Amino acid sequence: MTDTPTAVAIIPARGGSKRIPRKNIRAFRGRPMIAWSIEAALASGAFDTVMVSTDDPEIADIARTWGAEVPFLRSAAAANDHATTSQVLLEVLGQYAQTGVHFDLACCLYPTAPFVRPCDLADGRERLLGSRFNVIMPVTGFSYPIWRSLQREEDGRITLNFPENLNARSQDLPVAYHDAGQWYWFRTEAFLRDHVLMGPDTGSIVLPAMQVQDIDTEEDWGLAELKHERMFG
Q: Which of 40, 63, 117, 180 could bridge 68 with an S-S bond, Cβ 3.0-4.6 Å?
């Protein structure tokens, strides 16, 4: 790796969103959803290149309008409903390699992550470079202890998933975390070897719940806009 590692932001944005049609470019607080991710990446100063991987010409045009590069369109094989994020990243890095371009670091930044701040992306890069990890990703804690979670049968009957915790106090149970669903910084050499983002050499940073929101339904969308306005004004 060079003294100053080269880095690329890869924003995967296919055109076939099912749960919220055209989610990647639908207006979120006055601008296309993907614009928030592009702007954060450009403002972070953490990348030599900010690119969008898409199979959709309209998404490509919007991405370029907001300052991202779209040097090639995604293949059909990497744009179907069953394609994984890793497949998309491998294709992008492979396409760059065919043109003689190689990056030491990369960040998979989702196009539906309007809560991402430039400082978080810059911090993720520094955390990766200063660690033994091959990947750094943001996580947040579950708001309720999963160790007291329930199963519900069709007839409405409930049972504890962890009955041994029936009488445990919530404050005595360990905090459980989940993927914030925003970005993954990774060392490209390790990723090209292992093809995984969440493995034994994955580290994390913790984000507050206010900065995390899944956006998979119309209800999620409305809540995200309310939280975003509260956080960013």
A: 63
